[in-house]
Amino acid sequence: MKKILCIAVAAMAVLACGGGDPARKAVNPKATKEAQALLEFLYQIQGKYILSGQHNFASGITKYDDEVFSMTGRRPVVWGSDFSFEDVGEGFQRYQHAGPLNISVPFERPCVETGLTVEEARQGIVNEAIIQAAQGRIITLMWHCCDPRFTDGGNTCNGDKVWTMEENAPSAQEWDELCTDGTALNAAWKKEMDSVIPFLKQLQDEGIPVLWRPYHEMNGAWFWWGNKPGENGFKRLWIMTYEYFTAQGLNNLLWVWDANAPRIKPGDDALPYELFYPGNEYVDVLAADVYGWDYKQSHHDELVDLGGGKPIALGEIGQLFRDSSFFDEQPQWTWFMVWGYFIGSHRNTEDHLEVVRGIYNNPKVLTLDRISYKKGKYAVKE
How far is CA 36 from CA 210, 227, 284, 338, 371, in A? Predict the structure, then answer.
């Protein structure tokens, strides 16, 4: 008979009475019991296990999960997708990774050929998230959102206005207007935020917590929200977003601050984490995106230090880590999520398959069959 390692039972009983370790509570004091239970689960597994995860695009909502299963016979625990935007520009292939609604599934037909609207795509994401959560999956959502200077309210924009690059980034004056309540640009930003809040509320109504990671890779220069270090930079936008969403009654979100792994790469730099960090009072989980096998020890250690004990995660990865020593050298990662097609069949050489199967069969990697989910609480099957 299998033993069950119960997660957070005693801790949650104390929290329900208003006690518990304040350092392990969600930053939102009104966080739902499900959100708090999920956060407690992350604290419990850190240093012991890492949750497997997979990103899926809105128009191919289980495609890459299914590919993982076909390769390994196992399902990831973390299921991810992107609220994204609907493109009105030309040459969407140039910025496919800046908004999966622009194309059905990468390397396949464009979204415009499917007749899918952004509202339909977002509703499809929510519907699938409800199905996946009922199976014990943990949901993570992100949003390649439009630049408020160039949007009709968050649903439609030219993809070039998301993938901004430095020459088209908001000026200091525009940034200040964006972050100042009562301005025209701030009002446009609020309208954009209001376009996704109802979808997140549907998940809250279903009792589903969300690992919410807006404005990812903010320490790079490729998105409109990026490359704004310091107190008056990205930090203002993050805090403003957190306060707006919580004021709207969104209490099922765990706030995942997700930077790019720092790097010095001409024309593609990612600056140090700390220049963009809004502070522990506004972040539940710290994460990093790693591509090209760039798993430097510093990417892990600096995030651990910055969070002061908060869970850390690999918010997006491209290539999976190649050998099991990774789990001993960088033990604090609580989940990884492979970005869409990086797991895909077009990469299925024997070497790639061996790596994927090796990771999914590693005892430190939690897959769906190794997770118990009952009455809003997660546990690890031992």
Answer: 11, 32, 10, 25, 18
Helix or strand run (H / E) with residue 289: strand 285-290
| Pure H helices in the chain | 9-16, 33-45, 63-72, 111-114, 118-134, 172-178, 184-194, 197-205, 234-247, 297-307, 325-329, 350-360
The average pLDDT across 240-266 equals 96
CATH number of the domain encompassing residue 72: 3.20.20.80
**Band of the pLDDT at 59, cuts 50, 70, 90?**
confident
Burial class (CB in 10 A: 0-12, 13-18, 19+), 30: exposed
Burial class for 242, CB neighbours closer than 10 Å (0-12, 13-18, 19+)? buried
**For residues 40 and 14, is the Cβ–Cβ distance under 8 A?**
no
Domain that holds residue 374: 4-381
Question: Could you report the per-residue pLDDT of 149-182, keeping only the tens digit for each?
Answer: 988 676 777 777 777 766 688 999 999 999 999 9
The neighbouring-strand residues paired with 97 are none
pTM for the whole structure: 0.91
Mean pLDDT of 92-118: 56
Q: Which pLDDT score is estimated for 347?
A: 60
Give me the mean pLDDT over the 322-351 stretch. Answer: 85
Triad 133, 139, 142: Cα angle to 5° = 150
**Alpha carbon distance, N-terminus to C-terminus of the chain:** 10
β-sheet bridge partners, residue 322: none
β-bridge pairing 4-6 and 377-381: antiparallel
Q: What percent of the chain has pLDDT over 90?
A: 67
* Calpha distance 62→76 (Å, rounded): 11
Return the residue matching tokens 């990417």. 299
